[in-house]
Specification:
Order of helices and strands: HEEHEHEHEEEEEHH
Helix content: 25-40%
CATH superfamily: Peptidase S8/S53 domain
CATH class: Alpha Beta
CATH topology: Rossmann fold
Radius of gyration: 17 Å
Strand order of the largest sheet: 2-3-1-4-5-6-7
CATH architecture: 3-Layer(aba) Sandwich
Strand content: 15-25%
Structural class: alpha/beta
Length: about 240
């Protein structure tokens, strides 16, 4: 009986959802075969062009994107390059990246960086995040929690800041991967390396949010927050 129910459940899961997860980070090689058919409206805020190709060695965005896709294989990726290893190269690049995600119908924003990365949260960024959330009752924005917040996290877990309509975040924790695909060699084969911390946690939570949305099209933001909290096991607020 259980096998029959499982077969019926799997039969109604779409092969590919329309859930769009914006990865606001250091860019992505969108032409890699691993992303074929999975990329929507990519953009480079720094260079102001549609190809968010990262600088050599800037593999942070690739790590984040691949954690997301491992959590939600059916979700679509919207890579938005807005920073390099040294941070944003243009004033308000972070706010422009959020605006791009909002204007191109992203459902989830994953920003695997936080105040302790030296980026800060400007009034321009907060304004755009607020507009993003109010533009759709299902949208969710996830930021990496500051490093000092993670002192309280359980072993092998890190905190994520899940932003509410009021711009007050709920701090949730999640387990993080040991390694991720963080690039591709000359033959297109994936390269693995250790990847953890709040960056990985935000990616895990973003992929999880996309998975919930794709399996339950009726879920609203409140319901999504509640489900993320249940999986986390704890709200720090």
């Amino acid at each position: 009986m259980h096998m029959v129910l499982l077969a019926l459940a799997l039969s109604v899961i779409p092969e590919r959802s329309e859930i769009r997860i914006a990865v606001l980070d250091s860019g992505l090689h969108v032409k890699a075969s691993a992303y074929r058919g999975r990329i929507v409206t990519p953009y480079d805020v720094i260079r102001q062009r549609p190809d968010p190709k990262p600088n050599h060695g800037d593999d942070h965005g690739t790590c984040v994107a691949n954690v997301i896709t491992s959590m939600c294989p059916t979700c679509l990726l919207m890579p938005v390059r807005m920073l390099t290893r040294s941070g944003p190269n243009r004033s308000h690049a972070d706010a422009e990246a959020v605006r791009w995600a909002a204007e191109h119908d992203a459902d989830v924003i994953v920003a695997s960086w936080g105040m302790n990365d030296g980026l800060g949260f400007s009034s321009a960024l907060l304004k755009e995040v607020h507009a993003f959330l109010h533009g759709n009752g299902r949208r969710v924005a996830l930021f990496a929690a500051p490093r000092d917040a993670n002192a309280k996290a359980p072993e092998d877990a890190r905190y994520v800041d899940v932003v509410h309509d009021t711009m007050d975040p709920t701090r949730l924790y999640t387990q993080v991967p040991k390694k991720s695909v963080c690039g591709f060699d000359a033959l297109g084969s994936p390269m693995m390396r250790p990847f953890s911390g709040s960056s990985a946690a935000a990616a895990v939570m973003g992929g999880r949010a996309g998975k919930i949305m794709s399996l339950d099209p009726s879920v609203d933001r409140t319901g999504l927050y509640q489900r993320l909290a249940v999986v986390s096991g704890e709200s720090n607020e």
